[in-house]
Design a protein that fits this description.
Elements (H helix, E strand, L loop, with lengths): L17 H11 L1 H19 L6 H17 L3 H16 L4 H23 L2
Helix pairs in contact: 1-2, 2-3, 2-5, 3-4, 4-5
Protein backbone atom coordinates (compact mmCIF):
# COMPACT_ATOMS: atom_id res chain seq x y z
CA UNK A 1 0.00 0.00 0.00
CA UNK A 2 1.43 3.38 -1.02
CA UNK A 3 1.06 6.43 1.18
CA UNK A 4 1.04 9.97 -0.18
CA UNK A 5 4.08 11.96 0.97
CA UNK A 6 2.01 14.40 2.99
CA UNK A 7 -1.02 12.30 3.85
CA UNK A 8 -2.77 13.70 6.92
CA UNK A 9 -1.99 11.75 10.03
CA UNK A 10 -4.82 10.61 12.29
CA UNK A 11 -5.29 12.67 15.44
CA UNK A 12 -2.37 11.94 17.74
CA UNK A 13 -4.22 12.68 20.93
CA UNK A 14 -6.78 14.98 22.45
CA UNK A 15 -8.18 17.91 20.53
CA UNK A 16 -6.69 20.34 23.04
CA UNK A 17 -4.23 20.38 25.90
CA UNK A 18 -6.12 21.06 29.15
CA UNK A 19 -2.92 22.09 30.93
CA UNK A 20 -2.32 24.88 28.39
CA UNK A 21 -5.84 26.22 28.88
CA UNK A 22 -5.44 26.04 32.67
CA UNK A 23 -2.17 27.99 32.45
CA UNK A 24 -3.77 30.62 30.21
CA UNK A 25 -6.72 30.90 32.57
CA UNK A 26 -4.33 31.40 35.47
CA UNK A 27 -2.52 34.17 33.58
CA UNK A 28 -5.44 35.98 31.95
CA UNK A 29 -8.45 34.95 34.00
CA UNK A 30 -11.49 32.94 33.00
CA UNK A 31 -13.34 35.72 31.15
CA UNK A 32 -10.35 36.56 28.96
CA UNK A 33 -9.74 32.87 28.20
CA UNK A 34 -13.37 32.53 27.07
CA UNK A 35 -12.84 35.59 24.86
CA UNK A 36 -9.73 34.01 23.31
CA UNK A 37 -11.65 30.80 22.63
CA UNK A 38 -14.44 32.82 21.04
CA UNK A 39 -11.90 34.57 18.83
CA UNK A 40 -10.53 31.20 17.72
CA UNK A 41 -14.07 30.06 16.93
CA UNK A 42 -14.58 33.21 14.84
CA UNK A 43 -11.30 32.67 12.97
CA UNK A 44 -12.26 29.08 12.18
CA UNK A 45 -15.70 30.16 10.98
CA UNK A 46 -14.32 32.96 8.80
CA UNK A 47 -11.50 30.97 7.25
CA UNK A 48 -13.18 27.60 6.70
CA UNK A 49 -16.83 28.42 6.05
CA UNK A 50 -16.21 28.90 2.32
CA UNK A 51 -12.50 28.30 1.81
CA UNK A 52 -10.82 29.79 -1.20
CA UNK A 53 -9.59 27.57 -3.99
CA UNK A 54 -6.50 29.78 -4.29
CA UNK A 55 -3.54 27.95 -2.71
CA UNK A 56 -1.98 31.25 -1.61
CA UNK A 57 -5.12 32.26 0.30
CA UNK A 58 -5.56 28.75 1.71
CA UNK A 59 -1.94 28.75 2.83
CA UNK A 60 -2.35 32.12 4.54
CA UNK A 61 -5.55 30.99 6.24
CA UNK A 62 -3.85 27.78 7.38
CA UNK A 63 -0.92 29.77 8.77
CA UNK A 64 -3.20 32.07 10.77
CA UNK A 65 -5.20 29.14 12.15
CA UNK A 66 -2.10 27.10 13.02
CA UNK A 67 -0.79 29.97 15.09
CA UNK A 68 -4.08 30.83 16.80
CA UNK A 69 -5.00 27.23 17.58
CA UNK A 70 -1.51 26.21 18.67
CA UNK A 71 -1.17 29.11 21.10
CA UNK A 72 -4.39 27.99 22.85
CA UNK A 73 -3.35 24.34 23.04
CA UNK A 74 -5.46 23.02 20.15
CA UNK A 75 -2.52 21.07 18.76
CA UNK A 76 -4.42 18.74 16.44
CA UNK A 77 -5.88 21.64 14.46
CA UNK A 78 -2.53 23.39 14.51
CA UNK A 79 -0.82 20.29 13.07
CA UNK A 80 -3.47 19.84 10.36
CA UNK A 81 -2.93 23.49 9.40
CA UNK A 82 0.84 22.92 9.19
CA UNK A 83 0.16 20.09 6.74
CA UNK A 84 -2.24 22.29 4.75
CA UNK A 85 0.21 25.17 4.58
CA UNK A 86 3.00 22.82 3.46
CA UNK A 87 0.80 21.34 0.75
CA UNK A 88 -0.07 24.84 -0.48
CA UNK A 89 3.58 25.87 -0.65
CA UNK A 90 4.54 22.68 -2.48
CA UNK A 91 1.70 22.88 -4.99
CA UNK A 92 0.40 19.50 -3.85
CA UNK A 93 -3.18 18.29 -4.04
CA UNK A 94 -5.17 20.10 -1.35
CA UNK A 95 -8.24 17.85 -1.04
CA UNK A 96 -6.93 15.57 1.73
CA UNK A 97 -5.24 18.27 3.84
CA UNK A 98 -8.30 20.54 3.57
CA UNK A 99 -10.59 17.68 4.61
CA UNK A 100 -8.31 16.95 7.59
CA UNK A 101 -8.32 20.63 8.62
CA UNK A 102 -12.12 20.72 8.39
CA UNK A 103 -12.52 17.56 10.51
CA UNK A 104 -10.17 18.90 13.16
CA UNK A 105 -11.83 22.32 13.03
CA UNK A 106 -15.23 20.73 13.68
CA UNK A 107 -13.83 18.85 16.67
CA UNK A 108 -12.21 22.08 17.89
CA UNK A 109 -15.47 23.99 17.59
CA UNK A 110 -17.27 21.28 19.56
CA UNK A 111 -14.59 21.40 22.26
CA UNK A 112 -14.86 25.20 22.45
CA UNK A 113 -18.65 24.97 22.82
CA UNK A 114 -18.23 22.40 25.60
CA UNK A 115 -15.66 24.55 27.39
CA UNK A 116 -17.88 27.63 27.13
CA UNK A 117 -20.90 25.67 28.41
CA UNK A 118 -18.98 24.59 31.52
CA UNK A 119 -19.11 28.15 32.86
Amino acid sequence: MSVAPHAPAPPAGPIYEPRTLAELEGIFGHAHLMDLLDRLRTEIDQRLQAPSSDPIVLGQDAHILLSASGSLGFHDLSQRCVEMERSCMEGADLAAPLAAVRRSAEATLMAIRNLQNQT
